[in-house]
Design goal:
The chain is an all-alpha fold and about 150 residues long. The protein has two domains: about 70 residues, Orthogonal Bundle (434 Repressor (Amino-terminal Domain)); about 50 residues, no CATH class. It has six helices and no strands.
């Protein structure tokens, strides 16, 4: 006697057995996310030249809390994140690494900081082109005639 032919059709998408829980993708390591958040909060605070105490008062948290957050020893609750972002003049999305914007543009920087940023940008351009025969060191002054950033003061 021959067994009956299998007439079932296999689904192209694998399905979990009935009653089985769906697996979630493995979350990123909390320590890595906390470190990235801490680095962005610190960078935003430094760009404002603000103290931890100033940001803490503006966000309604203690200075100790800001210190622990910046050293990645403490997480941030959603409402704290929103208040910190407001105090740091950025968005919660930027602090979480979900958006590229966040730090002030060059026009909003103090003139000394803007000059430093432009000199650094010119240095990076010089590094990128240093293997070319026409490479030259960065100009003595930012925006010097003939520099790559001439007129960007």
């Amino acid at each position: 006697m021959t067994p009956p032919a299998d007439t079932s059709v296999e689904s192209p998408v694998p399905t979990a057995p009935p009653g089985a829980a769906r697996r979630r993708p493995a979350p990123r390591d909390d320590a890595d996310e906390r470190r990235a958040l801490a680095d962005r909060i610190r960078a935003a605070r430094h760009s404002l030249r603000a103290s931890q105490d100033t940001i803490a008062r503006a966000a309604g948290v203690s200075r100790t809390a800001v210190s622990k957050i910046e050293s990645a020893h403490r997480g941030v609750q959603a409402l704290e994140l929103r208040r910190l972002a407001t105090a740091l003049r950025t968005s919660p999305d930027w602090l979480l690494g979900l958006a590229d914007e966040g730090l002030p543009d060059l026009a909003a920087l103090h003139p000394d900081d803007r000059r430093s940023a432009l000199l650094y940008a010119e240095f990076l351009l010089w590094l990128a082109n240093r293997s070319l025969a026409t490479a030259r060191p960065p100009a003595e002054r930012c925006g010097a005639p003939g520099s790559a950033l001439e007129g960007h003061r």
